[in-house]
Design goal:
The chain is of the alpha+beta class. Helix content is 35%, strand content 27%. The protein is built from four helices and six strands. The chain has helices spanning 70-80, 83-102, 144-164, 169-180; strands spanning 2-13, 23-26, 39-40, 51-54, 108-120, 126-139. It has a three-stranded antiparallel β-sheet. A hairpin with a 5-residue loop joins β5 (108-120) and β6. The two termini are 26 Å apart.
Length: 182
Amino acid sequence: MKRITNVKVITTIDDNPDLSFLGEFSRKPLYRHKNEAWIPTDPDNMEHTIWFSPCNHLPHKEENWRHVSEEDKQKVIKEFGSLRKADIHYAYEDMKRLQAYENGKWYMEIIAIVVTIQVSEDGTHWVTQDLVESIGGIESDSDDEYKNMIINEMKEEMKSQLKSWGFDDDEIANALNREWAK
């Protein structure tokens, strides 16, 4: 005998997020490898500035734009003056995003689906097990559509877990739909 007793979506703060996709700050440029670039956080005050090394965009390389259509490149050039200037702009955008994180304007989340199941051989003594699907690195200011897409993908993974425990499609649908409707 088996049954699904609880289904919940839990969102928690990711206390140890990987923000390396944005870049890093330093009191001085470190130049650990040849493709590293550093920009001042305050170009008007170079004497006391903190430096930022973006993970993407700099140093500017034409080949980084290969995946972009010629039409879109022309739009970027029209807006920024050149692809190089666009790369510099985007690097500063990443810097501002990381500064906003450090100033508490946004944070990273972990979204988890937890399904509690119970299994019994005799219908009297039940063993309880929590099945979990989770993903971290979700930006707190992401829109609901994006978060719902992630939850729906995790629901599909959870269905696979439940099937491996022997639940059929109807049992899964009834439990999940009942809980999602709340």
